Amino acid sequence: MAKTPGSLQHTPEGELRHFISIDGLDRAMLTRILDTADSFIEVGERTIKKVPLLRGRTVVNLFFEPSTRTRSTFELAAKRLSADVLNLDIGTSATSKGESLSDTLLNLRAMASDMFVIRHAASGAAHFIADAVTPDVAIINAGDGRHAHPTQAMLDMLTIRQHTGAFEGLKVAIVGDIEHSRVARSQIRALNTLGVEEVRLIAPDTLLPHKPEALGVRVFSHLEEGLRGVDVVIMLRLQRERMETALLPSEREYYKLYGLTTEKLARTAPNALVMHPGPINRGVEIESAVADGPQSVILGQVTNGIAIRMAVMSMAMSGQLAERQRESARNREGTRS
Amino acid sequence: MAKTPGSLQHTPEGELRHFISIDGLDRAMLTRILDTADSFIEVGERTIKKVPLLRGRTVVNLFFEPSTRTRSTFELAAKRLSADVLNLDIGTSATSKGESLSDTLLNLRAMASDMFVIRHAASGAAHFIADAVTPDVAIINAGDGRHAHPTQAMLDMLTIRQHTGAFEGLKVAIVGDIEHSRVARSQIRALNTLGVEEVRLIAPDTLLPHKPEALGVRVFSHLEEGLRGVDVVIMLRLQRERMETALLPSEREYYKLYGLTTEKLARTAPNALVMHPGPINRGVEIESAVADGPQSVILGQVTNGIAIRMAVMSMAMSGQLAERQRESARNREGTRS
Amino acid sequence: MAKTPGSLQHTPEGELRHFISIDGLDRAMLTRILDTADSFIEVGERTIKKVPLLRGRTVVNLFFEPSTRTRSTFELAAKRLSADVLNLDIGTSATSKGESLSDTLLNLRAMASDMFVIRHAASGAAHFIADAVTPDVAIINAGDGRHAHPTQAMLDMLTIRQHTGAFEGLKVAIVGDIEHSRVARSQIRALNTLGVEEVRLIAPDTLLPHKPEALGVRVFSHLEEGLRGVDVVIMLRLQRERMETALLPSEREYYKLYGLTTEKLARTAPNALVMHPGPINRGVEIESAVADGPQSVILGQVTNGIAIRMAVMSMAMSGQLAERQRESARNREGTRS
Predict the structure, then answer these.
(1) How many helical (H) and strand (E) elements, i.e. helices and strands, does chain B have?
(2) Among residues C144, C193, C148, C149, which one has the least CA distance to residue C172?
(3) In a domain, C241, yes or no
(4) Same domain, A144 and A154
């Protein structure tokens, strides 16, 4: 029987063991992740940017979907934790020899790997692996299909907390292609778990998920209206492929209706934060003056991305090790009695 | 004059200096490699999976044939020995600028590289390099043409010894495409050197080498007959290309005749080991129930692969260094007298 | 306003801060680089080839043009300085998502990167980045368009000084495709700055730059004549593409006129050095007997390449850090007063 996201990601003692999705993690756990990341922010500013938390540990970056940017942030985070890192671009290797996903993973586990950072085009891939294939390897989800991209959501939460101090009372708008965005799905869940006042989705009808109300959000189809009074605006990247599939008329039309300009930004609360997961399409979903302007925290998000990844990697590794030790203690007891 | 495999791989004092093939290594040396690997098995189980034996040494993975799996095991082994690792996928780089193999290697040596791990499509490539191009760089053969894949053979020997305790009295069957397999060639030599009672080859006539008897083996063309009473069954991976060249009728036909099923496995000695170098083709050369069954040690082979690679890398490096020191001592003496 | 090459590469206190081109560096600075590299030569000969000068620092190899050879030397140099290294083959990644060069670099800087090693097809790319995009990240130019390849020039200078002791009084000939060579441009500047007696360019008219005299060189169109009495011959690699664009008749014809043979080498001063940046085209620009002969120092250049790269990386990092500390001290003072 498949485990719930909560029981899968936690040890029975409540430590983080895998990091697959925001679902199943409560406010206390999300806060612990943010606090741990805060302590790593300082590491990035040091001359010697290393902590020995994963020294001698083997982290395998398993990217079934290519993503140099995300892979690089995980690689840097792992190296700053002193891990040994193996990068595998699986799209072009083992599986091309007809080996199944499970066999590839079991082989890597047999090489004494301690952690898999996984990006996969199939929703649920990371969950499946942690649940059914290699539960004793710490699994970090680096994006699975349209399902989740939880480290991206958490680095956004860290950025918001740095600038606002708390989540209570905040109104946050997410703008763009919500339907196809694993980032948005994880952000909505994280914002609601952390207790913001209101999450708004602003998008054309064709780019909204089917039952948005079930997500605990308010929906707007006009940007000006949706932005009114918000404290944080999260712009999503527009995948150009959407144009070709007739979901959207044209880039120019999209920019006119949903692009964030200086003028439209004036509708928000004063000094609202402008965020974007990157890479940005200047002049498509965001005006350059806004992306580079004083309210933009886009580059701060990138810096926070390293700290958040260091946090979930070190916490999941520590939870896995504690659980493995308890298991072998139980096994010894079982043998003795 | 080209050196023999023995004189090439040994220093005059009998230390390992290169690891090119099982040919030329005697039983004592193979046993020393297995004993050293045993000591590294424990390293893989530690929290800090590092030993400093190759610290500050530069290991270059030179893969003229792509192989993510084999390259990864060498990379992990080198990192656990604390080496600096440079991965070069030569198929797509320097040589495409028209540089000769020798020039590429001499350039890498000039960068103060200490060890080359080489995979090459040409039989004898590793031997040629150790003999004629860069004898003072430790050469590890990671597979050359149809000739040899000695680390694969040694990890198989380690696996057999772990489970049986000794080689004396064992009957071992190798099943499948012997003719095109560098793995099989190295296995046969290693098994005979280590003193098993009998090595059997089981294959259709089209996939047998020309004079199999010269290898010190018994040949069977029926799987059921060949498996009778054996203690170890080593299945080989079937290269799908063989079908296309009319050497074999079809995958289905091959599976019927040479696929290892639960039923056929019953012919062996009780609890015979089932081995496979991976990646496995489920339902082509092996039934899933057998690959995942209690007699399968396939994932154990993978774990042992790291330990064997750590063993030959550290032994060859140590022999090279000892030899270089003796040489410079001799040179100083020569200058003085 | 764009900075001059000198003010860009130096801190106000005269330390190296970026390494973009030989232009703007004076004789004292070039000599300091050579002296520092000399101290690293010894590191390559040690058993433990590591110094901790860049420990905990993040070096990003940003190759917009592929070059396995140059990338490998920078990677090895960085690892021997104990840095964490991230290799990004940008041609195939982020920018393909439509992200601008500046945005890619600002993102990498936000990940707390300390140094970018940049190869780019556009002349001036490294200068632009150091001047206008990320001045507080140490920029090392690994080749930009036809403009400069300053680490190659400096490793050549190191090789010349090792063999001749000094630059005064030397006659140096550069032979081949000067027009398209960033290496030649950097060599000419370095040789003149270091005070050689004469720099000669030997090339067919079609492969000479437009106003060679402005470079402080003598021009020869006949190899035999140009080689007369020189102390150093630097051969350039002939890009085979030149043939196709009708700048040259044929490889055979080129070899006859400009290929360095034993016979032609006899025209130089006795024991003149033969140099080549590699990879060499045997039988196109150089005879094998010359490339492998007693006057060739081609492989020594490769060894020196690691030492020079360690030198400029450690010097630029150190200058950057000193400058950043002075800046934050100034900022603190500014706040206080």
Answers:
(1) 13, 9
(2) C193
(3) yes
(4) no
Comparing CB atoms, the residue among B45, B68, B300 nearest residue A94 is B68
User: Which subunits count as partners of chain A given 3+ CB pairs below 8 Å?
Assistant: B, C
Say whether both B293 and B312 belong to one domain.
no
C41 within a domain of the structure (yes/no): yes
Q: Apex CA C234: angle with CA C233 and CA C237, to 5°?
A: 140
Q: Are the Cβ atoms of C93 and A66 closer than 8 angstroms? A: yes
State whether residue C1 sits within 8 Å of chain A by CB.
Answer: no
Question: How far is C-alpha B309 from the geometric centre of its chain's CA atoms?
Answer: 9
A68 in contact with C, Cβ within 8 Å: yes
Task: Name the strand (E) or helix (H) holding C278.
Answer: none
Judging by DSSP bridges, how do beta strands C115-120 and C138-144 pair with one another? parallel
Contact indicator for B161, B188 with CB cutoff of 8 Å: no
CB atoms within 10 A of CB C193: 21
Q: Does A280 touch chain C (CB under 8 A)?
A: yes
Tell me which residues of chain A have a pLDDT lower than 70.
1-2, 91-98, 241-247, 336-337
Does A310 share its domain with A258?
no
Predicted TM-score (pTM) of this structure: 0.94
What residues pair up with B235 in beta bridges, in sequence order?
Answer: B175
Optimal mutation site among A49, A61, A67, interface C, most CBs of chain C within 10 A? A49
Q: C28 with C58: CB under 8 angstroms?
A: no
Q: What share of chain B is helix, strand, coil (3-state, %, to 5)?
A: 50, 15, 35
Å between C150 CA and nearest CA of chain A: 27
Of B50, B68, B300, the CB nearest to A93: B68
Kindly give, in sequence order, each residue whose CB lies less than 8 Å from that of residue C17, ignoring residues fewer than 6 positions away.
Answer: C9, C10, C11, C138, C316, C319, C320, C323
Report angle CA B44, B46, B50 to the nearest 5 degrees.
70
C-alpha to C-alpha distance for A299 and C183, rounded to whole angstroms:
36
Residue in C closest to A301 by C-alpha: C110
Structural domain for C256, as ranges? 150-300
DSSP structural state of residue A65: S
Give B60-118 pLDDT, tens digit per residue.
Answer: 999 998 888 899 999 999 999 999 999 988 765 544 466 788 999 999 999 999 999 99
CB of A94 less than 8 A from some CB of B: yes
Residues B120, B235, single domain; the answer is: no
* Rounded Cα distance, B87 and B72, in Å: 10
Q: Check which CATH number belongs to the domain holding C241 and give it.
A: 3.40.50.1370
Helix, strand or coil for residue C132?
helix
Rounded distance between C-alpha atoms, residue A286 and residue A274, angstroms: 10
Is A133:A103 a contact under the CB 8 Å cutoff?
no
pLDDT per position as a tens digit, A266-283: 999 999 999 999 999 999
pLDDT digits (tens, 9 = 90+) for C203-261: 999 899 888 888 999 999 999 999 999 999 999 998 776 666 666 778 888 999 999 99
- Is there a contact between A48 and C56 if contact means CB atoms under 8 Å apart? yes
The C-alpha atoms of residue C284 and residue C177 are separated, in whole angstroms, by 12
Write out the two tokens for A43: 């590491």
| Interface predicted TM-score (ipTM) of this complex, two decimals | 0.92
Cβ contact, residue pair B56, C68, below 8 Å: no
Same domain, C166 and C86: no
pLDDT in tens, C12-61: 999 999 999 999 999 999 999 999 999 999 887 887 889 999 999 999 99
Q: What pLDDT is stored for residue C94 in this prediction?
A: 46
Domain count, chain A: 2
Say yes or no for a CB contact (<8 Å) between A44 and C99: no
A310 Cβ contact list (under 8 Å, min separation 6): A37, A40, A43, A51, A77, A80, A81
Residue C267's CB is within 10 A of a number of other CB atoms, namely: 16
Contact A112 B69 (CB under 8 A): no
Question: How many angstroms away from the CA of A81 is the closest CA of chain C?
Answer: 10
